[in-house]
Amino acid sequence: MTQTVAWLVLLVAGLCEIGWAVGLKYTEGFSRLWPSVGTIIAMVVSVALLGLALKALPLGTAYAVWTGIGAVGTAILGIYLFNEPRDALRLACIALIVAGIVGLKLVTPSAD
Question: What is the predicted pLDDT for the residue at 112?
Fold first, then answer.
């Protein structure tokens, strides 16, 4: 797997992480069947894709980016879907996470 493909796989893994994190809210403690099934599927796909991306990316970088994508996406969807706070300091902190993700991508040497 090339690094370019690994980064794309990692992006999809991060999007699946957002899906399962938000899905947890809808499972109501895993008491609702279909939201629970979807959440568990997203968890498995997310971790499996992370594992694939690790074939070509450094562990520390891939894991940090994966969790960063999940954290940023979940925070943004929390604001949008659940009316969570959107004050300037919170948004600035989210922006710092995005900066960290971009920074890790930029400093990861390419093997392509």
Answer: 58
